[in-house]
Amino acid sequence: MKTLLLTILFATCFHLTYCQGELSKHSLQIFKNDSEKKVRSSEFGIIVDGNKISAKKIEDTYGFPKLDKDKTFQFVIKTNGIEFRSGTFKSWYLNNGSSIIVGKLTRIEKLLSVAEYNGMDKNDEDFEVFSKRFFIVNDVFTIDIENFEKIKRLDYLIVNPNQDGDGSYSLTQEVVQLRK
Description:
Layout: H1 2-18, E1 23-32, E2 35-37, E3 42-48, E4 51-54, E5 56-58, E6 61-65, E7 72-79, E8 82-90, H2 91-95, E9 98-105, H3 114-117, H4 127-130, E10 133-136, E11 141-144, E12 151-161, E13 170-178
Parallel strand pairs: 1-9
Antiparallel strand pairs: 1-2, 1-6, 3-4, 3-7, 5-6, 7-8, 9-12, 10-11, 12-13
């Protein structure tokens, strides 16, 4: 009897925490260098308290159950030859919905730097900072790449949560392959 009661209690707690009726909606885009690619078979989920929750496909978006405000989570995305695990994010990143961009850079030497875009030369203040910052994803986002000459492949994840007021995004990057 105790086991049955504990099982019911656990199931109720899990349901209240992860299985709320309303889903947050997230768009997912995949880029290779400057080109957007179709999302092929993908595994898209989150990890909360060690439990993996897979996204529910809803037309062109993906849905997740909303989390309690004190929870944190990680994104897990495997698609188009990219495997990315990123986080830890606060629950509001998930609960409000977001635009998520996963990308692979293999032609880093062809990226436009912020310094080049602004016509800076080596004598300008902050040239060192802006010469390592590059435009990606239709020149909307920038990414800082240290020693970009040595990198052959770099994967990134951009999470742009839906929010009121000034927008902010979180960018995570991972060097996958160096040049020989």
